[in-house]
Amino acid sequence: MNRTISILCTGHLPAHVADEATASGKVRLDVIPFIDITHVDSYDMTAHISELAAKDLNAVFTSSNGVEAVAAMLGGKDTKWKIFCLGNKTKNTVYQYFDKNKILSECDNAQQLADMLIGLRVKDVTFFCGDSRMDILPHALAGAGVKVEELVVYNTTETPHVISTGYDGVLFFSPSAVRSFFSVNTLGADAVLFAIGDTTAAEIMRYSKAKIIISPSPSKEEMINDVVNYFFIK
């Protein structure tokens, strides 16, 4: 393909990833976030997490937003936690704020994470999540008799934008962004949609019959590679 392709990214993208995507001049990339993330800012939550820091608990993170919110409330305080998380961005964010040795395991998606915790016969976990979190992990754990303390540490607000530009491809990083996008937009069947995981892809299917390419790992860098591979290498 010799022409320049036009891609819409519906969430924040690291500057170096965006630069790499457009370096060849073959990709035009528009980054328009369709959700806004805010950390829970309350005395009670901060005090509770500060108390938890001294406890030997199984901490579960399925998003980098949750890690950042908790780290902000800890204020640099060390913890005795055993950490279980998703890989790539979530794991890398954990590395920024916690001792790497505290990460006992990482998985590609919430179902794998739940299955792993159940397989390890973990009796209880503290799940740090957002107000729009998916049900997969807590439901699977509860169904297996694992006690789940669920702490909502960040909130997701949908920020829809009407898109008038035609795009060759659209990148979605979360089900919330999918809902926000399709609340005011439609896409033709010839569009190619890129999803960061199975749950995001499932949400896309509720609104569109367009082709969906699911990233093999929950990584924005990997998704950009998917775009390049699809349009220029396939």
UniProtKB/TrEMBL annotation:
Q: Which residues form the signal peptide?
A: none
- A Pfam family assignment: HEM4
Which SUPFAM superfamilies does the entry mention? HemD-like
Its source organism is Nemorincola caseinilytica
Instruction: Please list the residue ranges annotated as the Tetrapyrrole biosynthesis uroporphyrinogen III synthase domain.
Output: 30-224
Q: What is this protein called?
A: Uroporphyrinogen-III synthase
